[in-house]
Design goal:
The complex is a heterodimer of chains A (246) and B (315). With 246 residues, chain A is α/β, with parallel strands linked by helices. Chain A is built from six helices and 16 strands. Chain A has one domain: Rossmann fold. A seven-stranded parallel sheet of chain A has the order 9-13-8-1-6-7-14, sandwiched between helices. Chain A has a three-stranded antiparallel sheet with strand order 10-11-12, with no helix packed on it. Chain A has a two-stranded antiparallel sheet with strand order 2-5. The radius of gyration of chain A is 21 Å and the shape is globular. Chain B has 315 residues and is of the alpha/beta class. Chain B has a seven-stranded parallel sheet, with helices on both faces. Chain B has a five-stranded parallel sheet with strand order 14-13-15-16-17. Classes of the chains: A alpha/beta (246), B alpha/beta (315). Bound molecules: flavin-adenine dinucleotide.
C-alpha cells in the first residue's frame, strides 16, 4: 500500500503567541516548531502501523520553505520511508491543497492521510480540498482506521455516538484522536532519518483565495472571584444571580 | 446580498449547530439588506428554520442523509439556482466535508470556524487554538463561511417560513455508513453543550467520577476531561478537551482538579464563565478563571451537588 501523509509545521504547544508587523504576521522569534500533533501522533503513526502490518511505503509531504526540513526529518525519524517538500509558501489552504494534489495526482497513492486540523490555523480545510481536487472520497475526523482488500473502514464520533464508515481506496482521510498513539523516535530512527530521501519540488506559487488581514489577542479576563471552600454552595448562587449561567 | 445555508437534522430535529448557522446566515444577509435561503433534505418539517431567520427553505425530499459528496452537489445546484453571493455551513462534520469542496469548485474563498458576522469581506476566526483571533479577508466574489459551534446564538424570534421543493442531480454517496452506535442517549454531546463539568488528574482515579457525573447531571451539563485522563483510559477519548482534543466554548465550564496547562486552556478559553476548583492556590488555571474555589475536590464537589439539588428544587 502506498500512503501519503501530509504534515505541517506548528509552534510548540507551550509557545507564547505574539505578532509583528502591526499585528499582520506571527512572530516566530524564539518559537520552537514541531510537527503538527494531529499529523504526527495520529495520521503518521497509523500510516506506519498499516505499513508494518501489510507492507508498502509511507511518504511524508510538506508544503513550505527550507525551515520545514527540521520537522520533515522528525517525521522520517519516527519511521516514514521518504519525504517530499514542495518549495512554496503556505499562503492559504487552497494554495497548499493545490500543491499537494498536483504532486499526488499521478503517483498512485492508495491513501492520503492528514491531521484533522493544524493547531495554528485550526482550519480543517486542506483534507477536503485535496479530496475535491483529486476527485476522491473523504472521511473527515476518523478516530479509527483499518484497511483490507482496498477498502478503508473508519470510525468517527458523531452527535450522540460513533459511526462506522466504509470507503473504497483511493481516499483522503483526516485523523482525529484515537487513531493511534504517539511514538517517540529512537536513536536508530534519528540516525536513519539523516540519510533518507527528501525530495524538494520547485513549483510556481499556487492561487490563493483568502489572506489574513490582521491578528488580535482575545480580550483579557477580569480577576478571579474566590469562594470560601467551607461555603462552596455560595458558588451556585453566584452562577445563578451574578453570572446568570444557570 | 443573498446567502444560502445548509441545515442538517438528526432524529427528526435540526442540530443546534445547524440552527446557529441558519441564524448566522440570516443575520449576515439581513445586515446587507438581503435574504437567506436554508437548504435541507429528507423527511422533516423544515418551516421551523424560519424561526432561526431563514426567509425560505429549499428541501430535497429524495435525499435522505447528509453525505459529503451529495450535499456538495446539492449546495452547488442551490447556489446556481439562487445566485447567492455567500454560502454558510456549520463548522461541524458536514461543514468540514462540504465547505472545502465547494470552495474548490466555485473558486470561492473559505473561512472556516467563523465567530462573528463578516465585516465587509473580512471574517473573524479563532487561530492558534483560541490563543489569538485572525481577521481573514476573502479575495473572491463569492464567499464561503463555516460557523464555529457555540459562538453564535440561535435566533428564535423569526416566524415559520415557506418550504419549497428543490431537487438536484446529487449522484451517489462514496462513503458508506455501515453502522451508527448510539451511546448513552441521555448524555449531552460535548461540542454542543451549553454547560460542561470537566475533571483532571486531581480526581485520582476513574472510580471517583461518580461525583463529576452527578454534578453535571444536576447542572444539565456535559462531562469532559483533561488529556492525561483520557490517555490513561479513565475517560473516553471524546471527552478530551484542549489543544489536541476538542475545543469547546460553553457558557459555563467547571474544571475540577485540572492544573490549567496552556494546552488545556487553549481548548476551553472561549468559555463564557470559567470556574476552577483546585487544592493548589498556585494552579495556573486560576489566572483564567472567573470563579475559583481553593479546596479539595472530594469535599467541595459534594457540597456543590447538594447546593445544585437545592437550587433545582426551587425552580
Ligand atoms: C503537545 C502537547 C499537547 C497537549 N494537549 C493537551 C490537551 O489538548 N488537553 C489537555 O488537557 N492537556 C494537554 N496536554 C497536557 C498538558 O500539558 C497537561 O499535562 C495536562 O493538561 C494536565 O492534566 P491535569 O490538569 O488533569 O493533571 P495535572 O497537571 O496533574 O493536574 C492535576 C491538578 O489537580 C489538582 N488536584 C490534585 N488533587 C486534588 C484534589 N483532591 N482536589 C482538587 N484539586 C486537586 C492539582 O493541584 C493539580 O493542579 C498536552 C501536552 C503536550 C506536550
Amino acid at each position: 500500500m502506498k500512503i501519503l501523509v501530509c504534515v505541517s509545521k506548528a509552534p510548540d504547544t507551550t509557545s507564547k503567541i505574539t505578532f509583528t508587523n502591526n499585528n499582520t504576521s506571527f512572530d516566530e522569534a524564539g518559537v520552537n516548531f514541531i510537527v503538527n500533533p494531529y499529523d504526527e501522533w495520529y495520521a503518521l503513526v497509523r500510516a506506519l502501523e498499516l505499513k508494518e502490518a501489510q507492507g508498502g511505503n509511507v511518504t511524508v509531504l510538506s508544503v513550505g520553505g527550507a525551515d520545514y526540513e527540521q520537522i520533515i526529518r522528525k517525521a522520517l525519524a519516527i519511521g516514514a520511508d521518504d519525504a517530499v517538500r514542495i518549495d512554496a509558501p503556505e499562503s492559504d489552504a487552497l494554495s497548499v491543497s493545490t500543491h499537494i494534489a498536483n504532486y499526488a495526482k499521478d503517483k498512485g497513492f492508495d491513501l492520503i492521510l492528514c491531521g484533522k486540523e493544524t493547531i495554528n490555523y485550526n482550519g480543517s480545510v486542506v483534507p477536503g480540498m485535496v479530496a475535491e481536487l483529486l476527485d476522491m472520497p473523504l472521511v473527515a475526523l476518523a478516530a479509527k482506521l483499518d484497511v483490507a482488500n482496498g477498502v478503508a473502514t473508519c470510525e468517527r464520533e458523531v452527535t450522540g455516538g460513533m459511526e462506522v464508515l466504509e470507503v473504497n481506496l483511493p481516499a483522503v482521510i483526516s485523523a482525529a484522536k484515537g487513531m493511534a498513539e504517539q511514538r517517540i523516535p529512537n536513536m536508530r530512527g534519528i540516525m536513519a532519518a539523516r540519510t533518507k530521501a527528501l525530495e524538494v519540488v520547485a513549483v510556481e506559487n499556487g492561487a490563493s483565495s483568502t489572506s489574513v488581514n490582521n491578528y488580535e489577542m482575545p480580550p483579557a479576563k477580569s480577576a478571579c472571584k474566590f469562594v470560601d471552600p467551607a461555603n462552596a454552595a455560595e458558588l451556585i448562587t453566584l452562577l445563578h444571580q451574578e453570572a446568570k449561567v444557570i | 446580498m443573498k446567502t444560502i445555508v445548509f441545515a442538517e437534522h438528526l432524529n427528526g430535529k435540526f442540530t443546534k449547530s445547524s440552527l446557529e448557522a441558519v441564524s448566522y446566515a440570516s443575520a449576515w444577509s439581513a445586515s446587507a439588506g438581503g435574504t437567506c435561503i436554508a437548504v435541507t433534505y429528507g423527511n422533516i418539517d423544515a418551516s421551523v428554520l424560519g424561526t432561526a431567520g431563514a426567509s425560505e427553505v429549499w428541501k430535497m425530499d429524495a435525499l435522505s442523509s447528509a453525505d459529503g459528496d451529495q450535499v456538495t452537489k446539492l449546495m452547488l445546484a442551490a447556489q446556481k439556482e439562487s445566485g447567492a453571493n455567500a454560502i454558510v455551513l456549520s463548522h461541524d462534520l458536514v461543514g468540514k466535508s462540504v465547505a472545502p469542496r465547494l470552495s474548490v469548485r466555485l473558486n470561492a474563498g473559505l473561512v472556516s470556524g467563523a465567530t462573528a458576522i463578516p465585516a465587509g469581506n473580512t471574517v473573524k476566526k479563532n487561530v492558534f487554538s483560541g490563543k489569538a483571533i485572525a481577521h481573514v479577508t476573502v479575495n473572491s466574489e463569492l464567499s464561503i463561511v463555516t460557523v464555529l459551534p457555540n459562538s453564535y446564538g440561535v435566533n428564535t424570534s423569526g416566524t415559520a417560513c415557506p418550504v419549497n421543493a428543490f431537487s438536484a442531480e446529487v449522484g451517489s454517496a462514496r462513503v458508506r455508513v455501515k453502522e451508527v452506535r448510539v451511546e448513552e442517549s441521555e448524555s449531552i454531546p460535548l461540542p454542543e453543550a451549553d454547560k460542561v463539568v470537566s475533571a483532571g488528574r486531581g480526581m485520582k482515579g476513574p472510580e471517583n467520577w461518580g461525583m463529576i457525573e452527578e454534578l453535571a447531571k444536576e447542572l444539565n451539563a456535559a462531562t469532559a476531561c483533561s488529556r492525561p485522563v483520557s490517555d490513561i483510559g479513565w475517560r473516553p477519548h471524546h471527552e478530551h478537551v484542549g489543544q489536541t482534543g476538542i475545543a469547546i466554548r460553553p457558557n459555563l465550564y467547571i474544571a475540577v482538579g485540572i492544573s490549567g496547562a496552556i494546552q488545556h486552556l487553549a481548548g476551553v478559553n472561549g468559555s463564557k464563565v470559567i470556574v476552577v476548583i483546585n487544592k493548589d492556590p498556585e494552579a495556573p488555571f486560576f489566572k483564567a478563571a472567573d470563579y475559583g474555589i481553593v479546596g479539595d475536590a472530594f469535599e467541595v464537589v459534594p457540597q456543590l451537588i447538594a447546593a445544585a439539588k437545592a437550587f433545582n428544587a426551587t425552580k
